[in-house]
Amino acid sequence: MVEASVMVVDDSPADRLLMRAAFARLGQPVPLIEAEGGTSALALLEEQAKHGRLPSVVLLDIRMPDIDGLEVLQRLRDDPQTRLLPVVILSTSGHPTDVRRAFELGSNAYAVKPDTLAELDETLSSILSVFSQHSPYTVTQA
């Protein structure tokens, strides 16, 4: 069976917890890979690429203290191993400059973090639905 896996990159432990809970509410097991910042995300993705186990999609926050999400996105697009990796920016910022820059750098989608749990569930369900079916990367369940 082939299933989606999702990497969540967010420096906020509370936001990562909310996303874990939202994926649990979807009613299907979704392997989550969590990174608390850009540096750890890049290291995890490099290790996963070595083993051919990249996630189906990366949910990437922009505002992080070590390496911001836009820099992470740039590095992913510059690396031949992760160039096609689907990346969805999931940020509190809806500023047009951030949105434009994310798409210029190759983001596959951009969403502002929802205000309610129901909206978060709907957003994550939509992302999973699209990228689990159309991602060049999948995880085969053992």
Can you put this structure into words, describing what you see?
There is one protein chain. The longest helix is centred in the last third of the chain and has 18 residues. 44% of the residues lie in helices and 18% in strands. The chain has five helices and seven strands. It is an alpha/beta fold. The strands form two sheets. It has a five-stranded parallel β-sheet, sandwiched between helices. It has a two-stranded antiparallel ribbon with strand order 1-7. Helix 1 crosses helix 5 and helix 2 runs parallel beside helix 3.
SSE inventory with pairings:
Layout: E1 2-3, E2 6-9, H1 13-25, E3 32-35, H2 38-50, E4 57-60, H3 69-78, E5 87-91, H4 96-104, E6 109-112, H5 117-134, E7 139-140
Parallel strand pairs: 2-3, 2-4, 4-5, 5-6
Antiparallel strand pairs: 1-7
Helix pairs in contact: 1-5, 2-3
Q: Provide the succession of SSEs.
A: EEHEHEHEHEHE
- Note the total helix count: 5
Main structural class = alpha/beta
Tell me, rounded to a whole number, the average pLDDT: 88
Strand composition percent: 15-25%
Radius of gyration: 14 Å
Give a quick summary of the entry.
The protein is an alpha/beta fold and 142 residues long. The chain has helices at residues 13-25, 38-50, 69-78, 96-104, 117-134, and strands spanning 2-3, 6-9, 32-35, 57-60, 87-91, 109-112, 139-140. The protein is built from five helices and seven strands, in the order ββαβαβαβαβαβ.
Protein traits:
single chain; 142 residues; alpha/beta; five-stranded parallel sheet; two-stranded antiparallel sheet; 5 helices; 7 strands
